[in-house]
Every structure is written in C-alpha cells, then in structure tokens.
Design goal:
Pfam families: MerR_2. This is MerR family transcriptional regulator. The structure is a single chain. The protein has about 100 residues and is mostly helical. The protein contains 4 helices and 3 strands, in the order βααββαα. The protein has a domain at about 5-70. About 65% of the residues lie in helices and about 10% in strands. The chain is elongated and about 65 Å long.
Length: about 100
C-alpha cells in the first residue's frame, strides 16, 4: 500500500485549517482514503494539496477560484497529451512515406 498521511497530521504540518482540507475534499479537488474513521491523503496526492494550499494562502484565491484553476490545469494537461499523440501520428505518417 502506498504511503499516506492523516488529515490531522497534514493540517498541523502545513498550518492550515481543517475546514480548508475538508472543503477541498468536498469539492472533489482531493481524494482521500478513510480507514478506521481517519481521513488519509496519499503521498502521491501531496503535491496537488501543496499547490492548492499555496494558491489559497499565498495568493488568497478562494475555493471557487481553486476549482476553476484546477479545471483549467486539467484541460491544459489533456490538451498536451492530445498534442503529443497527434505529433507522434505525424511522425509515424512521415516515416511511412519516407520508406516509399
């Protein structure tokens, strides 16, 4: 099983309000694992939490703003992947015609 950190430890380390963490989960910006009534964040998702925390506390971006930014970043990542696929197809087609 991957490493994880409890919600209580996380908010203590990052000095954030527990309600902020809960709001991120409620909005679907973070996924948690619940075991024995303890909420855990997987270490793989820690960078997403850090980004959202920095945006909120350093730049004073509210929760709806975080949702918009998250959505836009996801769309950008999807477009990058699609672009990569298309570029690879172009190279494959080009290689195919060079061998004729």
């Amino acid at each position: 099983m991957s490493e994880r950190i409890s919600r209580e430890e996380l908010v203590k380390i990052y000095n954030v309000e527990i309600s902020f963490f809960d709001d991120l989960v409620a909005c679907g910006l973070l996924e948690i694992v619940i075991e024995d009534n303890i909420n855990y964040l997987m270490y793989d998702d820690l960078s997403a939490f850090e980004k959202l925390t920095n945006l909120h506390y350093d730049l004073d971006i509210n929760l709806p703003g975080l949702e918009v930014i998250h959505c836009m970043l996801k769309k950008i990542e999807d477009l990058k992947n699609k672009n990569r696929e298309l570029v690879n197809k172009i190279y494959l087609i080009g290689d195919k015609y060079e061998n004729i």
